[in-house]
Amino acid sequence: MLKRLAGVVAVLISAVPSAFALPMTLRVDATEAPRKIYHVELNIPAAPGPVTLFYPKWIPGDHAPSGPVNDLAGLSISAAGRSLIWKRDSVELFAFHIDVPQGASSVDVKLDFLSPAENGANSSVSATSELAIVTWNPLILYPRGLASDDLEITAQLRLPEDWKFGTALPVAKTNGGSVEFKTVSLTTLIDSPVLAGLHFRRIDLSPGAMPAHYLDIAADTEDALNAPAELIGKYRKLVREARELFGATHYGEYHFLLALSDQIAHFGVEHHASSDDRSRENFLTDPISHLVGATLIPHEFVHSWNGKYRRPEGLATRDYEEPMKGDLLWIYEGFTEYLGWVLAARSGLISPESNRQFLALTTANLDNRAGREWRSLADTAIAAQLLYDARNDWESRRRGVDFYDEGLLIWLEADVTIRKQTQGRKSLDDFCRVFYGPPSGPPQVKPYAFESIVEALNSVLPYDWKGFFETRLNRTGTDRAPLGGLEAAGYRLAYVEEPSEAQRATEQIRPGLSVAYSIGLRLNHDGSIIDVLPEFAAARAGIGPGMKLLSVNENRYSADALREAIRNTRTGGPLEFRVANGRSFVTFKLDYHDGEKYPVLRRNAQPPLLDDILKPLIR
Ligand SMILES: [Zn+2]
Fold first, then answer.
1. With contact defined as beta carbons under 8 Å apart, do 311 and 445 qualify?
2. pLDDT the model gives residue 120
3. How far is the CA of 187 from the centre of ligand 1 (A)?
4. Does 585 score more than 70 pLDDT?
5. How far is the CA of 574 from the centre of ligand 1 (A)?
6. Å from CA of 209 to ligand 1 middle
7. Beta bridge partners of 109
8. Coil, helix or strand for 171?
């Protein structure tokens, strides 16, 4: 497929040497972003004859064909002042065929992007009355078959009045609410979102040092920008710790684009020289809100090295049509999850104690993963493009994007293995400098295969790394997690009667509560059941996802009533649930007598290497 496309490109370019020498121009009117619509005008150099325009489909960072083509509207195409007929390809729905008339040297495209007003699969609310995250891939069509590195584009953006903005995209000039950017490749444009808003603040995170790092914040309120000085200090430390860990940077300057709103979807997307970080309005001002999201920014920052600079071959695609292959996502995402967790602690964004509490929650989830009976971790990575959109019901049997959290456990084991075998002289920190380190420079992609990872690890510690990873990646037939790293690092997973601060904070901030490790239930706060763990009492009694818990031992359902009843099973209390299942009501008696159980980490007899790993590199 790739070879055939390359041939077509060569023919096109040799036939019309001048047509693609000019950059495309893109004018985006974002003044109506608050009412969830963008208006776009594009000029695309094109030679007479059949041309296919392509809407970006496979989106970097999403690892999936998630381009929001259903939200492309108002498409009209003209050339030399004449309206052209466009026809969507009936197999590849992201491709639009046109016939460019003789005498024309470019086509003019108008389109609207219907920015999501609610969250759904492949669509997240990204604009409010006060702010917008402008990502470029939904706003563009480009000539099919050309590599995104080879397409040049000059973009202009009009923002609502008085809005300010931050971006890693180099600015040519600003004129009132209109911004003109320097000409860049299509790759760089799509890699460089813009965060804009009425309430905006820029904080220098590496004052006086090169390269520059900026925390650009847009929020729904002015108050939400008031990050305490101590917290800003920790983000400055994050920059220094990351630099120390990798020994080099691969960007000219870096922008943390932080959007704070309760109206938008909350997640992060990595880029070479910026990250698109989205959290709650009170993320910087409420310690509990920050605690629950403390690894968001470290994770996305690590991706500048692991994911953008060094990228698995299957994810280093030449355009937005070539399918991505996720088989190495346990490195791309799993190792990033590990390093983000490590750097969050090293920079003081989270205390080692809280970090261990979150690790306990993650580990317990993976150590009761019925889906591992049939599905390997490797398969979750290959199927990532499906699993990102999988529902939460029956996640225990299906598995989710486990290559993040289980990747963390496996990379922890790799780190501990190196530290033990070298008597503490080497660690994964050394691997980071070998694989992601010097020389520093502007953004570039160095693709790698699994063998390169093995080779780089062998340069730190000669070991059977191929066997090490393959064993853990391909394991099935067990619901147990790979806990070798945790246990060799001085800790074991245990269960206690009180939920940890980390679990309380999570349940306060995010929907749902978990009594998974006592009776095997995850529920929404209204009692509707999200998932059941197959080997636990609730599932054995016949309860399943989609049912709704109405009462517990004759008391109306509440989280407190449920927890109290579970607690009382220790002293012989019953556990009887009245449950609605569609039109019918059913009573379930659970055979359970062990009280409440919540995961924590406890010290074992091994030296506490975990604590060493989390210590800052810079004193
Ligand atoms: Zn990630």
1. yes
2. 83
3. 19
4. yes
5. 44
6. 27
7. 42, 77
8. strand
Distance 506 CA to ligand 1 centre (A): 20
Distance CA 349, CA 228 (A): 12
Question: Bridge-partner residues for 597, per DSSP?
Answer: none
Per-residue pLDDT tens digits for 426-477? 999 999 999 999 999 999 999 999 999 999 999 999 999 999 999 999 999 9
Residue 267 Cα to ligand 1 midpoint, Å, equals: 9
pLDDT in tens, 278-319: 999 999 999 999 999 999 999 999 999 999 999 999 999 999
The letter for the amino acid at 418 is: I
Distance of CA 316 from the midpoint of ligand 1 (Å): 15
The ipTM value here is 1.00
CA of 63 from ligand 1 middle (Å) equals 10
State in Å: Cα 545 to ligand 1 middle: 28
Instruction: For residues 313 and 323, give the distance between their C-alpha atoms in angstroms, rounded to a whole number.
Output: 12
Q: Where do the domains of the chain lie, and which CATH numbers do they carry?
A: 1-196 (2.60.40.3650), 316-492+605-613 (1.10.390.10), 501-599 (2.30.42.10)
**Which of the 8 DSSP states describes residue 547?**
-
State in Å: Cα 590 to ligand 1 middle: 39
Distance 511 CA to ligand 1 centre (A): 22
Q: CA-CA distances (angstroms) from residue 383 to 62, 315, 447, 476, 524?
A: 13, 14, 21, 16, 27
Task: Using the mean position of ligand 1's atoms as its centre, give its distance from the Cα of residue 336 in Å.
Answer: 6
CA 395/CA 463 separation, integer angstroms = 35
Ligand 1 centroid–CA 94 distance in Å is 26
The pair of three-digit structure tokens given for residue 5, joined into one six-digit string: 């496309």
Alpha carbon of 419 to ligand 1 centroid (Å): 26
What is the pLDDT averaged over residues 347-369? 97
Surface-to-core class of residue 320, CB atoms within 10 Å of its CB (0-12 exposed, 13-18 middle, 19+ buried)? buried
